[in-house]
Amino acid sequence: MSGYDADVIVAGAGFTGLSAADALVSAGLDVIVLEACDRVGGRVERTAFADGVAMDTGGQFVCDEMPNVTALARRFGLRLAETPLDGEFVFRPQASANPEAVFAETDRIHARAEGMDPRDPKIAGLTAGEWLARQNDPPDAKAGYQAMVEGLWCRPAGEIPLWYLIDNDRRTTSDGNELQYFVEGTIHAAAEALAATLGQRLRLGTPVVRITRAGDSVSVRTGNGDVLTARQVIIAVPPVMASRIVHEPGLPASLAGALGAWKSGTVIKALVRLERPFWRDRGLSGMILWRDTLGLFACDVSSAQATALVVFAGGPLAVEWSAKGRAFIEAEIRRRLVEALGEAAAGVTGLLIRDWVGDPWSGGGYSDVITDLQAYDAEDILRAGAPPVHFASSELASSFPAYIEGAIVAGREAAVRVIAAHQSAIATSASGS
Ligand SMILES: Cc1cc2nc3c(=O)[nH]c(=O)nc-3n(C[C@H](O)[C@H](O)[C@H](O)COP(=O)(O)OP(=O)(O)OC[C@H]3O[C@@H](n4cnc5c(N)ncnc54)[C@H](O)[C@@H]3O)c2cc1C
Hints:
alpha/beta; Polyamine Oxidase, Chain A, domain 2; 2 domains; binds flavin-adenine dinucleotide; FAD/NAD(P)-binding domain
C-alpha cells in the first residue's frame, strides 16, 4: 500500500458508507471513512426526549423481507419491537364511502402501475401525476394513490417519471409490510456499533470537498484542508450531495448528467409521546391516513419503554410546513391528532420534530428521486462510476432502494466492485505489466 494513506477512502458514514467500509475491512483492505457531520448514521439519526428515552428521528422501520438490516440488528444484540398495527385505522376526513373499499381501489391503481413495463414506449415522457390523471378510477382512489406516491417518494407526483416509480417500486419487495418492526434501542445504535468497529479509521466532521483522479490513484481534499491519497474512493452520499463534490479532471459528461438527474425528497418526521395508548380502548390501531392533506400519515410506535405516535409529512406538504416554521408544524400536528383521535390526544407529554427539508448533508429524505424524465440510465451510469472513483447510496441499491436495507446492500455492492478492482490492480502489478 506504500505511498497511499489508505487503499480506499469512503466519503460518508451513513449505512451505505459504514457497510462498504465494514466489507472492505473484512476483505483486508486499509480504509479511511470521512464523514461531514459530527455523528454517523446520516439519514438514520437518534434524538432523546427530556426523560432520556431516545427514538429514531430518521430511518426507523424494518421488516422480515429485509435480511441485511435485520441481521445487522441481531449482530449487535438489538431487539426488534413489533409495530402495533392491530385495530382499525382512522381515515381523515371520515369518508362517506367505505375506507376499506377506497383502499382496495387504490391498491388496484398501484398494481396496474407496477404491472407495466418501465421501458414501455407508451409511458415514455409521462410523470406519475400525468398517468394518474388519465386513469378512470374514482377520485377517492386516485387521491389515495397520489397520497401514497407523495408520502413515500416525498416529491410531487407530477415530477416523478412513471418509469422510475415503477422500477423503484419493483425493487421494494415487501408488499407494503415495511412498518413491521422498529428497533427498541433505535436503529441508529446499529450505525454507532458498526462505526465503533472501524475505530480510528473513521473521521467525523470531515467533509470531502474535492477529488482529484491521477491515473490509478485519487487524492481527496477535505473541508478541513487535509489531502489524503488512496487507490480508490467510494462516494457514499446521496446523488444530490455527491453532485456538490468538485472533481479534477471534471467527471465525464454522462456521469455529471446522471448526478444532476435527481432531487432530494422532502419530509418532516414528528414523534409524539402520550401517557398511554388510549386509542386501543376504541379498537383503533393509532394509524391515521389523511386524505384531505396529501402526504400526511401517523402510526403507533409504542414500546415497553414509551407510548408514542409517529407522524410523517412528506412531499409538497413538507415543503409548505417547513416554510411556515416549527411553531406552525407543532400546532398543526397537535390539532390534527385531537381531530383524529379525540381530546385525549391533547395530553402530549413530549414532542420531537425533525424537519429534514434541505438538510445540509443529506438534502432531505426519505431519499433522492430521479426527476429527469429522460434519465433512464442514470443509476447504471452512477453504479459504473469513474474508477477509481465509485458511487454508492441507498438510492442505487439493487433491492430496497431508499431504505436502510438498500443502503447496506448498496454499500456491499460497491465494496464488491472496489475489491475486484483492487485485486486486479494487485495482480497486474505483481505480473509487472
Ligand atoms: C425521516 C426519514 C425516515 C425514514 N424512515 C425509514 C424507515 O423507517 N425505514 C427505512 O428503511 N428507511 C427509512 N428512511 C430512509 C433511510 O434512512 C435511508 O435510505 C438510508 O439511511 C440512507 O443511507 P445512505 O448511507 O445511503 O445515505 P445517508 O444516510 O444520507 O448517508 C450519507 C452520509 O454522507 C455524509 N456526507 C454527505 N456529504 C458528504 C461529504 N461531502 N463528505 C463526507 N460526508 C458526507 C452525510 O452526513 C451522511 O452521514 C428514512 C429517511 C428519513 C430521512
